[in-house]
Amino acid sequence: MTSTAGSPKPSSRPETVSRAAVVTHGKPGQIGAGLARLQAVAAEHGVELLYPADEAEKHDGVEPSTAPEGADIAVVLGGDGTVLRALTRFLGTRVPVIGVNFGRVGFLSSMGRRELEAGLGRVFAGEYDVVELPTLELEHPDGVERAVNDVVVASAELGRMIELDLAVGGEELGRQPCDGIICATPSGSTAYNLSNGGPVLMWGLEAMALTYVAAHSLRARPMVIPPGADVIVWNRSQDVDAAVLVDGHRVSTLGPAARAVVRLGAERSLLATLPEATFVRRYRESFAS
Fold first, then answer.
1. CA 84: distance to chain centroid?
2. What's the burial of 126, exposed, middle or buried (CB within 10 Å: 0-12/13-18/19+)?
3. Which domains does the chain have, with CATH numbers?
4. Which end of the chain is more exposed for a tag (fewer CB within 10 A), N or C?
5. Tell me, what's the pLDDT at 201?
6. Catalytic amino acids?
7. In which band, very low, low, confident or very high, does the pLDDT at 12 lie, cut at 50, 70 and 90?
């Protein structure tokens, strides 16, 4: 195993895998015989599988593990949403997450379902890299949150435009009528941010993408924000609340004149990859072909 993006190799992590946590799609039927195939590969390589309590409830014949955060790696059977959930679950534990795609796009996954046996055999033998990806820290009226993919401030009423006032690095950027604003990490830049015309940030960048959603202007353009520049978002609408979402989940509401602050966080999400599953290859196969 090696570590990329300029980050040092964690000295406490073993070269080969002896324990792997399991995270699967929210609908167990989506992965078919995937879990049985994973169990067979793990048995062949002498790897103990650890099941968080919610995973044990989904699958017959497995027992919950007491400390899945003590795994050497987490194996995901699912789509990008499941990988995102695993990255969030293991944030701060130093457990990297590797995905086997049982979803549609699978940009965050290293291998397809057909390559499960061969790919995970290599992973269990220690043949994988770890990419350390920035996260976001969000301050909002109800507390503080961490985001792996993105923070979105959007109209809380479907079909109603809001006015957002922004400041970046302590300087006013201006007021903009729109449906919302997306603050995305490099891993999140290929999700909602991409579908709204935002910039794609390659893994290895310490930056945040700032992209308006349906801005009522020809001059509102995406921006790339460096570390140390907080983004402050005020809701300047008089009669429409703004919803605050972290990785797709609503966490707070901004009433008139309320604000949220988004910055690059101190923690890193750890995405494990097969050596050949580079960012450029994934991008080409997922979006450019």
1. 4
2. middle
3. 2-128+274-288 (3.40.50.10330), 135-265 (2.60.200.30)
4. C
5. 98
6. 80
7. very low
